[in-house]
Specification:
Blueprint lengths: L2 H17 L8 H8 L5 H13 L3 E6 L5 E6 L1 H8 L9 H5 L6 H20 L4 H18 L6 H8 L10 H17 L1
Antiparallel strand pairs: 1-2
Helix pairs in contact: 1-3, 1-4, 6-7, 6-9, 7-8
Length: 186
């Protein structure tokens, strides 16, 4: 099975849930049980990250579960399954493998993170929201310095609601995504 066909299985399962009236979010074990996917949690997370990036799935943090995530199909995902036109363009293999990010690319990411700090401090945010956003940037900076950075985790941090809606942040995040996609492709 390919990552693409596994993504389609996940999306079709989430579609069936919503089509039958089940509007609750579901867990990774529920997805594995109902799709027949016998894979690691990390693999399912990579698949759903790609679906979320494409706007087909929404995820939430399950605070009661250690590292738990909850999943639900979006309206765009529901329509895509009904039309049999699932536009997943991101390759999960890139997110599950190791990246060869050069020191130059890391320094460019550090520069972008510095710009993000400036954007956050100049934005008109509450003290709490500013502190949360800065803590996320600091966490990303620390993760980048590790010998083998956890890029999927870094991207999850950058997609945090604490950074959503801060004008100017999205373009900077896309700059980081472009660097990582270039590293994954080369």
């Amino acid at each position: 099975m390919s990552a693409r066909s596994d993504q389609i299985k996940v999306l079709q399962y989430l579609h069936r849930r919503l089509a039958t009236g089940d509007t609750r979010y579901c867990t990774i074990p529920t997805i594995m049980k109902n799709t027949g996917l016998n894979a690691s949690n990390q693999y399912i997370l990579a698949l759903t990250d790609d679906l979320e990036t494409a706007g087909l799935v929404i995820t939430r943090q399950a605070y009661q579960m250690s590292g738990g995530r909850l999943f639900q199909i979006t309206a765009a995902g529901f329509d895509a399954v009904q039309k049999d036109d699932i536009p997943v363009t991101v390759d999960s293999a890139a997110w599950t493998g190791r990246f060869n990010v050069s020191e130059h690319q890391k320094s460019e990411i550090r520069r972008i993170l510095t710009e993000m700090r400036l954007v956050i401090t100049s934005a008109k945010l509450s003290n709490a929201r500013t502190a949360n956003a800065m803590a996320l940037i600091e966490s990303v900076e620390k993760l980048i310095e590790t010998p083998d950075p956890l890029w999927p985790e870094i991207m999850r941090l950058l997609r945090s609601p604490a950074l959503n809606g801060v004008i100017g942040i999205t373009g900077l995040i896309l700059g980081i995504v472009q660097i990582l996609m270039a590293a994954a492709g080369g």
